[in-house]
Amino acid sequence: MWYNWFILVTEVLITMDLEQIKELISNSGKKITDQRIALSEIFLRHPHQYLSAKKIRKMLEEEYNFVMSFDTIYNNLYMFRDLRIIEEQVFHTEAQYCLNHSLHPHHHIICTKCGKKEDIEDLCPHEELEARYPNYLIINHIFEVYGICDECQQKAE
């Protein structure tokens, strides 16, 4: 079943290295380009950091001397996302990307003042949604909670 394939692919990605990323790209029928290698290296060097397309473009220019259009960057990000190399989250209406190292969908609580992000543990509606909507093959979901963190609340007092 598709879900079992997803778990298998995700388990492979937990300890991902550049060779595994290149293999995933190649197996998908896409070319392994210098730009895709550079993009892979950026995510491997920042495995727990969410990066926007704007930040990635700046890193590609500064570290690799690649000037890429946003269309090209987004096309590669979407391909990486679809191959489960990276995960995509939307923070304050901006998509950001991080190396995929999770077996399950990833959820966050986000401070609306400072942008601090924390993982929400042990709260995932995926199985409940599958039970409630058996006629759907649920492949992904986004769950975000917004609030004001302790530090920002203390600053406001």
TrEMBL record:
Provide the protein's localization: Cytoplasm
Residues bound to Zn(2+) are 111, 114, 149, 152
How the cofactor binds, per note? Binds 1 Mn(2+) or Fe(2+) ion per subunit.
Q: Among the entry's GO cellular component annotations, what is one?
A: cytoplasm
MF GO annotations: DNA-binding transcription factor activity; transcription cis-regulatory region binding; zinc ion binding
Please provide an example of a Pfam family that matches this protein in its UniProt record. FUR
Listed under GO biological process in this entry are: negative regulation of DNA-templated transcription; regulation of secondary metabolite biosynthetic process
UniProt keywords (A-Z) are: Cytoplasm, DNA-binding, Iron, Metal-binding, Repressor, Transcription, Transcription regulation, Zinc
Q: What is the required cofactor set for this protein? A: Mn(2+); Fe(2+); Zn(2+)
| Highest rank taxon of the organism | Bacteria
Q: Where does Fe cation bind?
A: 127, 141
- Write out the similarity annotation: Belongs to the Fur family.
> Per its record, how is this protein called by name?
Transcriptional repressor
Q: What is the protein's species of origin?
A: Culicoidibacter larvae
